[in-house]
Each structure stands twice: as structure tokens, then as C-alpha cells.
Amino acid sequence: METNNTAGKKIKSTQTAFDIIESIAEAERPSVSDIAEEVDHSRSTVHYHLQTLQQNRYVIRDEKGLRLGLRMAHLGNLALQKHRLTGLVEKMADDIAADTDVVAHVAVRERNKLVWLYRSEDPQIEDLPTTVGNQIGLHCTAYGQAILAHLTEETVESILAEGGLPARTESTITDRDTLESRLSKVRQLGFAYSSGEFVDGIASIASPIISDEDGVIGAIGVTTLDNRIENPYMHTKARRFSDELPGKIRDTARIVGDHLDDTT
């Protein structure tokens, strides 16, 4: 018979394995000692978990150290392929990007995080931390705010209780009243706008993707450099970004939502 203590140990053991995986992902070929220090466990505990991870090819050890196995990429690709928005939003996002000369994104919520599902190409902001699968707080981007604005109050409370409102920059919203005011504006306008809240010098506009049956599914939008708005050479593009683009994004998000309803 499994006791509560036994179940707790199993959960803790699973968490340790995930901590080790994330430590390897974020480091450059770490050693067992490096990982043990990072996850605050003994070398023997880390070694025990690594044996299982290596046997299943989730972790590879070579002469340079430890790295994640490509089996991880396979799982990630499967998760991406099976998401209901995959295959539906990519061309629409690319069309927005091509028409406006800025990078377009599609993002979804997983628990209390925003996860990037798709990103168009834009060589002007190559180092933007929005690679597919990367996750951040929902409160600090237009994409997350577009989603939060259309969740139930109970769900928003649960998200904030779990993740809080941590600051990423000096412009990040970190108090509940300011966030609620922003979300109210998002509901009124049908789109969210953020500037410098996620990354300094970066601005975004996004609209929620809403299904009649399932509610808000994600968000689609664009992201560009703040200085592209202010640069006189980019004046025409800037006006489109600040004046015309929200309508285009709202329309695209609505079309995606309609497609979702048609296929359910």
C-alpha cells in the first residue's frame, strides 16, 4: 500500500530529475559536480538520476561533459505537432510579418506561463528570447495580457497566486491594480500593447485567439524594436504599427478562432 509519504518521495524524485534536465539544458556541457551544485543535491543523488536519463537517451555523456539527447527534441516536436493551433496559424503569422516588416508570434498559455508556439523570421532582432517552447510570465507581454484579459477571474487569481508578478524590466507591471486596469483596456480595445515590459526596447501588439467552445486559446501578434517606431526613416512603418496594425491583428485572431470552431 502506498502511503502519503511514499507518494511525496516519488513526486520529489521526479522534480529532482526535471531540475537536473533543466540544469543541463541551461549550462554548457556541465559535469556531475556542476549539476549537483546547481540543483543542491549530492553527487550520488545526481549520478543516480543521470543513469536512468542516460539509459533512456534523454541525456548524453561524452568527453566534453553532459548534454541533452536529441530525443528531447523529438518529444518537443511531437508536442508542437499535436497542438491544435499548429498548421493553422503559421501562414497567417507569416503574412502579418511580411506585410508589416516586423516579427510575428503566436503564443499559448500553459498553467501560469506564456509559451511561444510560433515565431516568424526577423533578422533585426535575432536575439529576442522568444524561441518556440520558451516560457515567460503572462503578465509581462502583450501576448500574455491578451490571454489574461479573457480568462475568468478565478483562473487569473490562480495564475497570480502561483506565479506572482515578478519584474523582468523596470517597466514590467508588478502590482495587481495596474494589471487589472491594463486587462480592462485590453477587453475594451480587443488587443494588448506592451513596451519594454518583457525586454527593454521591445514593443508588441497582440490579440487573443478565442474559440466559442473553449474560450481563449492563445494570442497572435507582432513585436518590434521601440526605436523603429521613433526612427524618422521608419515613419510610415511606425504609423502602421501604432495605428493600423491592431485591426489587422484583431481580424487575424478572429479568423483563427472561427477556424477552430469550424473544425470542432
Structure description:
The chain is 50% helix and 19% strand. The protein is α+β, with helices and mostly antiparallel strands. The protein has 2 domains: 4-72, Arc Repressor Mutant, subunit A, CATH 1.10.10.10; 83-262, GAF domain (Beta-Lactamase), CATH 3.30.450.40. The strands form 2 sheets. The chain has a 6-stranded antiparallel beta sheet, sandwiched between helices. Strands 1-2 form a two-stranded antiparallel sheet. A hairpin with a 2-residue loop joins strand 1 and strand 2 (65-68). The longest helix has 28 residues, at 235-262. It is globular and about 55 Å long.
Overall pLDDT level? 88
CATH superfamily annotation of the largest domain: GAF domain
Approximately how much helix is present in the residues? 40-55%
- Low-pLDDT runs of 5+ residues are 229-236
The number of distinct helices, counting runs of at least 4 residues, comes to 10
Keywords:
19% strand, six-stranded antiparallel sheet, Beta-Lactamase, Arc Repressor Mutant, subunit A, two-stranded antiparallel sheet, 264 residues, alpha+beta, 2 domains, single chain, 50% helix, globular, 10 helices
Please write out the topology:
Blueprint: H1 4-26, H2 32-39, H3 43-55, E1 59-62, E2 65-68, H4 71-81, H5 90-100, E3 103-110, E4 113-119, E5 135-137, H6 142-148, H7 153-163, H8 176-189, E6 192-195, E7 202-211, E8 215-225, H9 226-230, H10 235-262
Antiparallel strand pairs: 1-2, 3-4, 3-8, 4-5, 6-7, 7-8
Helix pairs in contact: 1-2, 2-3, 5-10
